[in-house]
Task: structure prediction
Amino acid sequence: MSGSCDMAKHTMKRARNKKKVIGETDMWYVIQTFGGEEEQTADIIKKRVSSYYIEDCFIPKRERMKKFQGRWNKVEEILFRGYVFVVSQRPEELYQSLQRIPKLTKILGREENYFVPLNEEERKMVQRIGDKEHRTGISKIELKEGKIVRVIDGPLTEYVGNVVKLNLHKREVTVKVTFMGRDVELKIGVEMVEDKEKEARGNKR
Result:
């Protein structure tokens, strides 16, 4: 009897420690929040909502190069400003739990579109543009006369045909994608191959 109890406890412990795997049947939702409060809202959801209702709660980020004191440094910024993403198999229970959080009650109570499911194409777009940590890395590009002639590596390879603007000063490109049923523009960080070559030559001197 004692051995059976020990085995049951061991099995329950393993189940609690087992990392959740997001599957194709899980539903992806976005919760609209105030710009600049995405991190705080995600932290509240993780602390106040049972993990039984949430497979994942995250904020997609993007990497870009930013110049500080004459040197280029890699920084992270929010990709979809004003949104927190949640993955759940129990959206009704999740929504009820969210409504019981004072900070979210007013937001969710305003309009129905503050808690919206993503369709399959939108979900795949979010997955393609980021890695497993929901981070959109920097794409390496080759330029000629100020235009992109080749995407060597990075998430931009999937969206080179969607580029609507290239900002060499900020080392980023703007792409147009469909999100929540409408066209939106996202910024993806880029790194010119010639920049890396110049940097390498400078380090050898």
